[in-house]
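Crash report, auto-generated. Payload:
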Amino acid sequence: MPFDAANLVPILPEIAILITASVVLIVDLYLKDQDKGLNHSLSLIGLVIAIALTGAVGGGERQIFFDGNLVRDGISDLLKGAILVVSILAFIYARPWLKDRGMLVGEFYVLGLFAVLGMLVMVSANSFLTLYLGLELQALSLYALVAFDRDSKKGAEAAMKYFVLGALGSGLLLYGISMIYGATGSIELGPVAQAVAAQGIANKVLVFGIVFLVIGIGFKFGAVPFHMWVPDIYEGAPTPAVLFLGSAPKIAAFALAIRMLVEGLPSLHADWQGMLIILAVLSMGLGNLVAIAQTNIKRMLAYSAIGHAGFIFLGLLAGSQQGYAAAMFYAIVYAVMSAGAFGILLILSRKGFDAENLEDLKGLNDRDSWYAAMMTLVMFSMAGVPPTVGFMAKLLVLESVVRIDLVWLALVAVAFSIIGAFYYLRVIKFIYFDRPAPDAPILVTSGGVRIAMTANGLALLALGLFPAALLSLCQAAFAVQ
Amino acid sequence: MNMNLLFVALIPLMGAALTAWVSRFGRMGSAWTAGGVTLLALLCLLPSAAAPFDGEVIVQRWPWIPGAGLDLAFRLDGLGLLFALMILGIGLLVILYARYYLSEHDCMGRFYAYLLLFMGSMLGIVLAENLILLLIFWEMTSLSSFLLISYWRGREDARTGARMALTVTGLGGLAMLGGFLLLGEIAGSYDLSVILTMGDVIRAHPLYTPMLVLILLGAFTKSAQFPFHFWLPHAMAAPTPVSAYLHSATLVKAGVFLLARLFPVLSGTPEWSWLVGGAGLTTLLIGAWFALFKHDLKGLLAYSTISHLGLITLLFGIGTPLAAVAGVFHIINHATFKASLFMAAGIIDHECGTRDMRRVNGLWRFMPYTGTLAMVAAASMAGVPLFNGFLSKEMFFAETATFFEEHAWGWLLALAVVIAGMLAVAYSLRFIHDVFFNGEPVDLPRTPHEPPFWMKAPVAVLVAICLLVGTLPAYTVAPLLQAASAGVLQAPLPGYDLAIWHGLGLPVLMSILALTGGLLIYAARRPLFALAARLEGRLDARAIYDWALGRTLDFAGAVTRRLDTGSLQRMLLFFMLSALTLGAIGFIGGGSSLTGPRVLLPVDGVSILIALVLVAVAIGTLILHRQRLTALIVMGALGLLIALIFVKFSAPDLALTQLTVEVVTIVLLLLALYFLPQQSPAESSRARRIRDLGVATLAGGGTAALTWAILSRPFDSISGYFLANSVPGGGGANVVNVILVDFRGFDTLGEITVLALAGLGIYAMLRELRLPGPTHDDAGRPWNWDAHPTIMAALARLLLPLALLVSVFIFLRGHNLPGGGFIAGLVTAVALIMQYLTNGVEWTHRRLSHDLHPLIGWGLLIGTLTGLASLIFGYPFLTSTFTHVHWPVVGEFELASAIAFDLGVYLVVVGATLLILVHLGLMHGASHPKQGIQQESR
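Recovered output after restart:
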């Protein structure tokens, strides 16, 4: 069947990332050890080009291409941009860590770029098949990234767990997709939505299909009870890998949920809403409660991620355009916050030392008051304290839940965020009120890292003060449908 | 459009940054800047200041987040104006005072920056028109007060105090967020102008009670109401100017401000009276009691602040319009006398170096001027006539007296407030008597003397206000009070009289009782002190806070220990159980039946037999799974049975593939078995295995049910298209093969590429890898005394040409009959592997090139070139064509271009399979001992 090259235009960002990854893969073969930094530069250039291309091809009417497998719309434009920006931050933060440990090799960048590519594909997907392809590309790259420090037993164990559970999660998702296909005869989102609307919930197969889709989505978000992998992987994996895994993939997971549930199965909203409520309440509860007891900050952030996933679900389950926009806002904001938090951990690490415990943040203010301020912004934002953007994000999702008369759910969410605020405040206490360990050196970081972290931290404040721009983008993404 | 209100709040916030920056150029610069900024904000407020006195409400709004319907909306009515004036006025005095209070080594810039930040947030609260905006500023006051309280970071008590204040008020703010969301939902808007008119709707709403509780949680935590009062005394670790500011007119007043703001909407229900009145009364009493027994000067003031806040809360709780007016009046009065008292305490601390009232005595001789000021302020706090505190206290007594007359148990309230009044008199007396008289100072770190003039000036200003208001209320405070009360009530004001003397009545009697009682209590304070010392720590709400915190932590720890063990098996178990639960919910919930409408096919004996054998063999594999070799062979049987099923369902092609793949897989697994012990150990207990059996049965049953559900439903298969188009479109009758090489040729090209890459990857990994394993048992006997049995070897050699012939046959017929490049490739690979197995690596390598890369390369090249060829003829990539040729012996033969592609598939499959298997075999020395020995000797 004839192929129209115009199909390639909307996926130029993806193509740019693919080319960058391939170039890094080949160039790396010919680089001497001391020149490996070139990989870093190439990756950043590729990402920047991809951002530019996203802007260039983005905007305007919704386009469907590649025989209905891919779509470019407001959602994909915004999410692609967010994923790329967060990935740039991640690469910048990771570089010194990798260099200190002699791991500044092409593989890290190739895997990272392929993960980004997978996320972009997920975001642009218009069929279950494309979604799954993107998901697996992302997941496989991340499995390898988790095991990236080959000599680390913890890393290997984490990767093993991630892989086994991830395979199970993907398998169930695929199982769900196959049932949706069995019930509707299509894997494209649009036709599936039509077929489902026509037959309703009377089809048992469809019910199971939703169940397994929700399980898959819950797994990717790390929502309770499919969260078991999150703390162990966050703790065991090398911090740069966690940085990758804990930030942009949340945006991709959001895209997964939006594409599958909202675009693929809109008429079954009542059915998946119930399941998402269960997952949301459990996630917020367990995530926030257990985070208090953690002494390892990576583990704490893992549980915090679980709790935040519950909040994102609040917006999703509302089933209103306002709710989706709120959830999108939340997901993007969370990715930025998470990147900042792990970025600080990377900044605190040095050769032979990884910042992993809360104690390691002690006296950060005495060691570098600017980074202390940035981490404080991140923590306040995660806790949802105004005027940081975390508050806005929480407010928006809570409001969307209240609007559909699920007042009790909003109250539960508020109660858990009160509990949650505790452990973020504890981090701030360590930063400002405790003396640094006697052997803690002054923090030395490159200018690039400092600029990136400054931008990252201040963005949380700026977005909190002027959320209108991002929010209106989020709302526009859902309004045009 | 007027936007001065926005600037009133923004100027201090922006000024904060400016102040911090200015401090680089000298210490005093920041003080001047802060003062200037505050004056500027005050000037900004002035143009609108007249309107509230005429009963107008100014609302100014700018779009902020149109998407969420949030505006930057500000409102100025009497209440807002009163608070804004207090915040800015007292703020100005505090800035002046602090300039002299702070010592050389305190960073001025930081202090004033924090102070302005706080001032801006506070102004935001009182001027906000929108509840969400109010909440944002509310939390910002929590943050900035945290910064102010922890200003002396080096001190442990400052850090604990600041954290506690932030935790309690911040969390209260979050609760309030919930309350505001509900209020907004009930009223349909977050705008106060809308909400304040909807009192009846809101009070009648079913969500009223939860909403009230949540909002009160916010207000009570902020205003240090019982049981959240404990943070306030700890916040006294802040520099005294901060305390004077935060605990007189601002931070703690934010809570009562909120009560006043929402008074017309929320008050007038039993819930309101009990919650607000109850908390207020308890706080009033507890605060007054503790205030008397604090030896720390600021501690006394802290608890008296708590007590006075309780008084104000109680007034709002009573709920009558007059009580509300009294509450507003007391807010004003408390702000003035408490600010001056804190400043006086700061002066004393500053000059003496300590605040302990057991040591600070007899200061009258050293600082009579300060002493006079403090005495006036303390008298006002005690409610002595002619000072402002008396007026509002009188109104308060009058309200409780009315309450007493109207309610059966009202006398209890009257009694309680009289006791509180006595205690207030007693602690005020103690403040004066202990500090300025009562003997000589005890071992002070510094010799006290009068402070600089400008440090006393702010106190003097405030004390003057106390006096003026106290003596000439009608000419001073009346208009402001009226405007503010109108702002609170949003209704016509009740009649009230600000005269000092109302004639003899119950209120006056209560005042006299309080004054004389207070004197008596103070006289008898020694035994009371002993009693208080014994009660110390019993009535401490902080203990409850600590306890709750500890329990939460314990609980979190327990949950972690139970759930978070890091065991992968447990994770999988939870995962499966959760999936099963959700599945079961879906199964029960949907309502539709599991079985679909499709007519079922009749069951025949062969299928049942195959199925039964399949089940039996599967169970057998499970039972034997610890005998590795046996289990593997049984598994092979399982594969064969599946091939049989394919045959039964008329899919010979699949059956052939399954058969060959099965052989290759078994060989692969056998190679891996070299490195494993013969038997796997039993790793789990019986109970656990039974549990796993249950989970597995459920999961398997669920899958079976789902399969049943799908199979029993009508389904449009895509096979129809391929069946119809196979011969006309692809020129082959074997649909499977046509799909592989034609319809889905691109996929196949991708697949063989992946296969080739996988082969190369495994080769790259295994190339240098030699895993030594035992070739002999304990007694020194070789595992295998005859690695390559002669008969077997000879037979295998005989079989090779036959097998190759079969594979060529399968390959050629593939397009029309079961077969094809993939199966043919596997057959060839199996035939060659057999030579390796039976004759050994060396024997085989002597006869066969062991460089398999060209094979794979050629295969890929041929496949790709076939695809590209179609491009030359102007067709899309991999378009196939076919023609018929007549071969001499074979007869009519169809030659499709796809056959070239199939050849590529064949070559890659042979190459990759051999590459993988041979190198896996080479890893271990058991099958080729000589090589193994060479390796070891190297």
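Post-recovery validation: DSSP finds 39 helices and four strands in chain B.
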